[in-house]
Amino acid sequence: MPGRTPAGVGECLASRWPLGEVHTLDRPLDGDAADRSRAAAVAVEVRCPPPLGPLRAVHHKAAFELPCEHVRERQALATAQFVEELAADRPDLSVVLMGDLNAGPDAASVRFLTGRQSLAGVSVRYEDAWAAAHGDEPGHTFTPRNPLVRAGEMPLERGRRIDHVMTRSGAHGPPLDVAGCRLVFDRPVDGVWASDHFGVLAELRRPDHAPGSWAPGS
User: Which among 24, 116, 145, 166 could disulfide-bond with 97, CB atoms 3.0 to 4.6 Å apart, if both were Cys?
Assistant: First the structure.
């Protein structure tokens, strides 16, 4: 459970399918020893059955404090570089990045991950599953519609989409297509809410032919 705080918050992944290699990122951010900010992520090979096949699932959680986008930028950069190092060793594995990024689509850390800006001379590109399926629809995952948000530590929260599922792209796009994406745990069951965050469920599939190639017979 990398990045674990004294309160027990850290990175965690669970899968219904068997797991292969497990790698973790857990280190202090340079120059941030005073506030103990860390770069943390866990990357797991998930041995999904055909037709999807094995992939690498990466969970990343960023600093929650509203004024700390500069920290989230550095955390996103560290996780992206961590993934690129792993991808160099196993280019056969598609990468799905997910987590509570504590930042909306317009934040610099998320803009970096989705390829709309660089950070420190580095650029990557992940496709945002929600945006692929719903465009500019808000899709708030942390919202006052959930009474646990109003009862929690941010009672004036207006609503944001801060929980994300993304697929890593190559030069010609991601090797996984988004068949659908929806919010889950976004209503109570017998009056009980599962969390103060709504979940994001993305359905992924292989495209008809791999990006970077032409369809057979074309």
Answer: 166
pLDDT at 130 over 80: yes
DSSP β-bridge partners for residue 126: 168
Give the pLDDT of residue 13.
Answer: 85
The pLDDT of residue 5: 67
Lowest mean pLDDT among 113-117, 162-166, 208-212: 208-212
- Report the alpha-carbon distance of residue 108 to residue 36 in Å, rounded: 21
pLDDT, residue 141, reads: 98
In 3-state terms the chain splits into helix, strand, coil percentages (rounded to 5) of 15, 30, 55
Domain residue extents for the chain? 19-205
Taking CA atoms, 192 is separated from 49, 156, 197, in Å, by: 34, 22, 13
Task: Supply the pLDDT for residue 36.
Answer: 65
The SS3 of residue 38 is: strand
CA 83 to each of CA 91, 149, 167, 184: distance values in angstroms, whole numbers, following the listed order = 11, 32, 12, 27
Q: Which helix (H) or strand (E) is 19 found in, with range?
A: strand 19-28
Pick the CATH number of 19-205 from 3.40.50.2000, 3.40.50.2300, 3.30.390.50, 3.60.10.10: 3.60.10.10
Cβ–Cβ < 8 Å for 168, 174: yes
